[in-house]
Amino acid sequence: MSEKFVLATHNPGKLKEMGAILAQFGVEVVSPRDLGLTVDVEETGTTFAENAMLKAKAICAAAKLPAIADDSGLCVDALNGGPGVYSARYGGEGLDDKGRYMLLLNSLRGQSTRTAHFTCAIACAFPNGDTLTAEGRCDGTIAYAPMGEGGFGYDPVFFVPELKKTFGQLTAEEKSAISHRGRALESFIGKLETYLKK
Q: Strand 115-125 relative to strand 131-142: parallel, antiparallel, unpaired?
């Protein structure tokens, strides 16, 4: 199946990661920027799934192509599930990835409960009004200090006990095999293949 989908993200890390996984299934992804589109979608949803669908529908309407969007974030038990849907905006506008994970580490200083999980919700909207959704989750803990140069976002502080490494220390292949996004995409690809065969 050689299908073209718009991936509703401006995040180059996410584009590369999802593009590589979807390419294995013959799905070609383009970014809104590749199509000359600038669509700012306000993420007003209270869940990852709601935000993903808002983005997918807006990009699909603008591009007149099927659009895939994801919304993902880090949920830390000691922070009552925060930063959650606010992961990318944690600490306010002025912070970069490093600023956000350093703020997170400071928030957890002295905290012995460091369990956390990443959640990813994927939504796909088609020009005919059909939609598909999938979710994935990866459990871990928050490290005491950043480790590794790989990945993006909170990857250097998200520790996976069974691998004894943070997401930032994993290769792209290792990460997509166990990550929340990898798991959500796996579930999504199954649904997409079924849908496209109809």
A: antiparallel
Q: Write out the two tokens for 14.
A: 């996410």
pTM value is 0.86
Q: State the residue range of the domain holding 97.
A: 3-197
- Report the CATH number at residue 172: 3.90.950.10
Average pLDDT, the chain: 92
Residue 125 neighbours by CB under 8 Å, 6+ apart: 53, 56, 57, 59, 60, 66, 67, 69, 131
Could you identify the residue written with the tokens 């996004």? 181
Q: Distance (Å, rounded) from C-alpha 102 to C-alpha 92?
A: 13
pLDDT in tens, 110-152: 999 999 999 999 999 999 999 999 999 999 999 999 999 988 8
Contact (Cβ atoms closer than 8 angstroms) between residue 26 and residue 2: yes
The model's pLDDT over 169-197, given as tens digits with 9 standing for 90+, comes to 999 889 988 999 889 988 998 998 899 88
Total structural domains in the chain? 1
What the block records as the tokens of 169 is 């220390």
Question: Any idea which residues carry the catalytic annotation?
Answer: 71
Strand partners, 159: 141, 166
